[in-house]
From TrEMBL:
Entry GO MF terms: heme binding; iron ion binding; oxidoreductase activity, acting on paired donors, with incorporation or reduction of molecular oxygen, reduced flavin or flavoprotein as one donor, and incorporation of one atom of oxygen
Principal place of residence: membrane
Protein name listed in UniProt: Cytochrome P450 2F2-like
Keyword tags: Heme, Iron, Membrane, Metal-binding, Monooxygenase, Oxidoreductase, Signal
Organism per entry: Poecilia latipinna (sailfin molly)
Positions annotated to bind heme: C430
The keyword Magnesium is annotated on this UniProt entry: no
InterPro entries on file: Cyt_P450, Cyt_P450_CS, Cyt_P450_E_grp-I, Cyt_P450_sf, Cytochrome_P450_fam2
Signal peptide: 1-17
Source domain of life: Eukaryota
GO biological process: organic acid metabolic process; xenobiotic metabolic process
UniProt entry tagged with the keyword Oxidoreductase: yes
Length: 487
């Protein structure tokens, strides 16, 4: 009996030693448990409400332990700006010990740590995306071409009700495929179906409790548990990317790039000894760009049409502006946004409420630093609660309503408050912002010009609460579509 009690006491002592220490002057936070940290404080299916609750108790900058790893959660515009804009490079790292780092092998661009590899690839990608505006087939042409397929789908369904999920997903997926590989896939193509299934599975695992357990308890990482499926799916994508790159190598003309892969192959041809460009990096960055571009854009479009159907007076006001500005023109251009302040305000308001990437991508401090008076050691994981900025009282005239006036001044001109951060800000800010904004504008305007979208009577009251994930998705809904009388 005495021996058992002694052993139990010894175990308790060692477990308590595993309880992570709180660094000096670290932001406050809830008490944590050995091994698990604060996992029990969070609903792993959707922690957003917990983050708000903890903010109410501990303030705009507080700490949590993900297993034994300390993390700081940043809330509200003031703290967010100080961290990612003012002290930009201090907060520009990415954590390197997560499930997602193992799946991506610390390559690509999104989860690569702050350093030369990331900088070279970010710079190259931004330049390449920008140059498509000047190339033979501009970004705008690629997007407008794809929209015609969406228009055809809607025309076929005019007068009827349809589920828009797959349609918007296909549009976003094909646009980024056009940019990366110069090709689009038919909606029933078996290869793209396989790739889409792989991504869906990977996202589900990365969003779910298995990834959280993988991050928190390193001991389980080599066990045959469901997270291994993500590694298999990654291999499927990489071998598909290898085929596409090989095809490009056979057909490309050096110095005359047709798409992102050709631009990268040109770069490889001219690379110097220190360059960090490689074919493996090309496959990995294609993965990153495809993933980063698809669900984000299609979920924002889904949110757009959910709101536009349920606020028909706003939909009509958009249509009036579109009809007026585009009168006599056969198609919209991105330039037209400058004459459409109301449409711009509506799209921005949709992005504000869609809060598509609610916790951004996790950051990490690159050196010992401080924030709002607290000390944060190098290597601390940083979680940006973007929702807390996008709906912050004091930053918006109507923080809790769908109201385009959040982006209009008294003269009816479009204005963009600094707290508009759906793409984050600072050096790690979304590098596809330009492409995403072009897609959202061209797609929404083209569709609203041609069709009216009606919330089906039988659908009952709309539910605007999204489903949580790395990206927020509106709950599945249906839409009734009607060709407008002037079309
Ligand atoms: C509505 C659509 C989109 C939204 C809301 C969105 C949002 C975001 C956010 C919040 C981040 C994290 C930024 C940070 O860590 O501070 C991010 C990163 C990123 N996004 Fe987007 N994104 C969208 C579309 C796109 C598109 C179309 C592309 C592809 C070209 C793209 C490529 C990337 C990349 C590569 C990063 C990582 C940047 C880095 O680590 O340097 N995104 N995005």
């Amino acid at each position: 009996m005495f021996v058992s009690l002694f052993l139990l006491g010894l175990c308790a002592f060692f477990i308590l030693q595993l309880k992570p220490p709180r660094p000096k002057n670290f932001p406050p936070g809830p008490p944590s448990l050995p091994l698990l940290g604060n996992l029990l404080h969070l609903n792993l299916e959707n922690p957003l409400k917990d983050f708000e609750r903890l903010r109410a108790s501990y303030g705009n900058v507080y700490s949590l332990f993900i297993g034994s790893k300390p993390a700081v959660v940043i809330n509200g515009f003031e703290a967010m700006k100080e961290a990612i804009v003012v002290k930009a490079t201090d907060f520009a790292g990415r954590p390197q010990d997560l499930f997602i780092n193992d799946v991506t092998q610390r390559k690509g661009v999104v989860m690569v740590d702050y350093g030369p590899m990331w900088r070279e690839h970010r710079r190259f990608t931004l330049k390449t995306l920008r140059n498509f505006g000047l190339g033979k087939k501009s970004m705008e042409d690629r997007i407008l071409e794809e929209i015609q397929h969406t228009v055809k789908t809607l025309e076929k369904n005019s007068g009827q009700t349809l589920s828009p999920q797959v349609m918007f997903h296909n549009a976003a997926s094909n646009i980024i495929c056009q940019v990366l590989f110069g090709k689009r896939y038919k909606y029933d193509d078996q290869t793209i179906k396989l790739i889409v299934r792989c991504f869906a599975e990977m996202t589900k695992i990365a969003n779910g409790p298995w990834a959280m357990l993988y991050d928190s308890i390193p001991l389980i990482r080599h066990l045959p548990l469901p997270f291994n499926k993500a590694f298999e799916n990654m291999e499927i994508f990489l071998s598909h990317a290898r085929c596409l790159v090989n095809e490009h190598k056979k057909t490309r003309v050096s110095g005359e790039p047709r798409d992102f892969v050709d631009c990268y192959l040109d770069e490889l041809e001219n690379k110097n000894d220190e360059s960090m460009f490689s074919e493996e990096q090309l496959r990995r960055i294609s993965f990153d760009l495809y993933v980063a571009a698809t669900d984000t854009t299609s979920n924002t479009l889904l949110t757009a049409f959910l709101y536009l159907m349920n606020y028909p007076h706003i939909q009509e006001q958009c249509q009036q502006e579109i009809d007026q500005v585009l009168e006599g023109k056969d198609r919209v251009t991105f330039e037209d946004r400058l004459s459409m302040p109301y449409m711009q305000a509506v799209i921005h308001e949709i992005q504000r409420l869609a809060n598509t990437v609610p916790l951004s991508a996790f950051h990490c401090t690159t050196k010992d630093t401080d924030l709002m008076g607290y000390s944060i050691p190098k290597g601390t994981m940083i979680i940006q609660n973007l929702n807390s900025v996008l709906r912050e009282e004091g930053q918006w005239t109507f923080p809790h309503e769908f109201n385009p006036e959040n982006f209009l001044n008294e003269q009816g001109e479009f204005v963009k408050p600094e707290a508009f951060m759906p793409f984050s800000a600072g050096p790690r800010m979304c590098l596809g912002e330009g492409l995403a904004r072009m897609e959202l504008f061209l797609i929404t305007v083209t569709l609203l010009r041609k069709f009216s979208f009606i919330w089906p009577e039988e659908a009952g009251k709309p539910d605007f609460t999204p489903v949580f994930g790395v990206t927020l998705t509106p709950k599945p809904y249906t839409m009734k579509v009607k060709l407008r009388s002037n079309h």
